[in-house]
Amino acid sequence: QTVVTQEPSFSVSPGGTVTLTCGLSSGSVSTDYYPSWYQQTPGQAPRTLIHSTNARSAGVPDRFSGSILGNKAALTITGAQADDESYYHCVLYMGGAIWVFGGGTKLTVL
Amino acid sequence: EVQLLESGGGLVQPGGSLRLSCAASGFTFGSYAMNWVRQAPGKGLEWVSLISGGSVRTSYADSVKGRFTISRDNSKNTLYLQMNSLRVDDTAVYFCAKGAVPATYFDLWGRGTLVSVSS
Q1: Of A46, A58, A61, B37, which is least surrounded by CB within 10 A?
Q2: Is the N-terminal amide bond of B102 cis, ω within 30° of 0?
Q3: What angle do CA A71, B107, A79 make, to 5 degrees?
Q4: How many other CB atoms sit within 10 Å of the CB of residue A32?
Q5: Residues near A52 by Cβ (< 8 Å), separated by ≥ 6?
Q6: If DSSP codes are grouped into helix, strand and coil, which group holds residue B3?
Q7: CB contact under 8 A, B105 and A91
């Protein structure tokens, strides 16, 4: 069974930089998994931030960026703002019209 | 306005059935794959099911295979999820999500509908 791993929680100071990661319990994440990232505040619909590893969705500020770091997908927030405090979810496309989400990361800005 | 609006959630007993709907507007519904994604209380997102634009292809997470059926009516711009043999661990907010092109990610989400399975 494929397990996608994310840090359960992370904190960043306002104006700081934080990198959240998305890995596999077995193996490495590559661009072939088309990693995508979603931001969600409680009670709200998820918002698409990054797709296909590093492509920003329309309207997403350029302080959000995606990449592959080592054997994981990564979401970097540069110059964190108070309203970036949210949950961040990554998902990997496993092929065959199957996706697996990670457990999500709760980001605190303080 | 481009939007997805889910409905049909509610309280159901274990073993029961429920049908969710997702009404789409603002885009050519039949041209895109659609998905259901759920989120159990306090948990992360879980992809549930996909259906292609023309309903030729469907796929399911192992956790719902054989119990849930995804379908769509392109004439009504509506996506459905028929959920049978419901279990307590099916309790979640169910989101519909539009597949992008290519359909490797989700580019539009609804606000979700809550399904509670409890005796």
Answers
A1: A58
A2: yes
A3: 60
A4: 11
A5: A31, A34, A35, A36, B104, B105
A6: strand
A7: yes
**CB-based contact (8 Å) between B46 and chain A?**
yes
Given a cut of 70, the residues of chain A with pLDDT beneath it are: none
Residue B50 with chain A: CB contacts under 8 Å = 97
Contact yes or no for A24/A2 (Cβ under 8 A): yes
Is residue A32 helix, strand or coil?
helix
Q: Considering only CA atoms, which of A103, A86, A8, A100 is closest in space to residue A43?
A: A86
Give mean pLDDT in consecutive 10-residue pieces for chain B, a chain of 119 residues. 96 98 97 97 96 96 98 98 98 97 93 97
> Which residues face A99 on adjacent strands?
A93
Strands A9-12 and A105-109: parallel
Q: What is the pLDDT of residues A22-49, one digit of tens each?
A: 999 999 999 999 999 999 998 889 999 9
Provide the phi-psi class of B90: left if phi over 0, else alpha when psi is between -120 and 50, else beta.
Answer: alpha
| DSSP 3-state of A37 | strand
CA A13 to chain B, closest CA, distance in angstroms equals 24
User: How far is A35 from A31, CA to CA, in rounded Å?
Assistant: 7
Q: Which of B100, B108, B112 sits opposite A51 (nearest CB)?
A: B100
Tell me how close the Cα of B36 comes to any Cα of chain A, in angstroms.
Answer: 11
pLDDT at A100: 97
Please tell me what DSSP assigns to residue A102: B
